[in-house]
Amino acid sequence: MANVVDETPPIRDDYQLALVEADYFKDKLRPKQFLHIDQAECILCEGCVDICPWKCIHFLSLDAIAEAINVDHPADDPQNYGFFVVDEDECTRCQLCIDRCPTKTTGSSSSTRTNAPGASSASIVARPM
């Protein structure tokens, strides 16, 4: 075996910081899209969960939130079956889940996040009849 030298590549330090006007980014940035699952129309096929390459969509039972504080527990309503959790930080917005949904109840919107940063979106889904 030959002598292999593992050298660290040089680190650049010639970056220049510059102030730019807000209009500079207007055509370069798009608003972040957020995944939305319409719980009223969802048939609970979990196709969105299966096809997600990043495994950021989860369907959880109501037992996962058994220790909720200061809120009505969703299990008190017998029509509630479970809920979806989407890890928005891991989601790449590939939209495979949107294409896979047979009822087209999965979609995205550019509305602002209502959750705290790092929190996941969740929605209660009614038990199928």
In short:
The protein has helices spanning 23-26, 47-51, 96-100; strands at residues 34-37, 57-61, 80-86, 106-109, 121-126.
Task: Break the fold down into its secondary structure elements and pairings.
Blueprint: H1 23-26, E1 34-37, H2 47-51, E2 57-61, E3 80-86, H3 96-100, E4 106-109, E5 121-126
Antiparallel strand pairs: 1-4, 2-3, 3-5
Features:
129 residues; alpha+beta; Alpha-Beta Plaits; three-stranded antiparallel sheet; two-stranded antiparallel sheet; 20% strand; disordered C terminus
Shape: elongated
Distinct helical segment count: 3
Order of helices and strands: HEHEEHEE
Share in helix: 10-25%
Give the radius of gyration.
22 Å
CATH architecture: 2-Layer Sandwich
At the first level of CATH, the class is: Alpha Beta
Total number of beta strands: 5
List low-pLDDT spans: 113-129
Order of strands in the sheet with the most strands? 2-3-5
Distance between the amino and carboxyl termini: 68 Å
Alpha-beta content class = alpha+beta
Number of separate structural domains: 1
**Largest sheet, described in full?**
3 strands, antiparallel
CATH topology term: Alpha-Beta Plaits
What share of the residues does DSSP label as strand, in percent? 15-25%
Describe the structure.
Helix content is 11%, strand content 20%. The model is unreliable at 113-129 (pLDDT under 50). The chain is α+β, with helices and mostly antiparallel strands. Strands 2-3-5 form a 3-stranded antiparallel beta sheet, with no helix packed on it. Strands 1-4 form a two-stranded antiparallel ribbon.
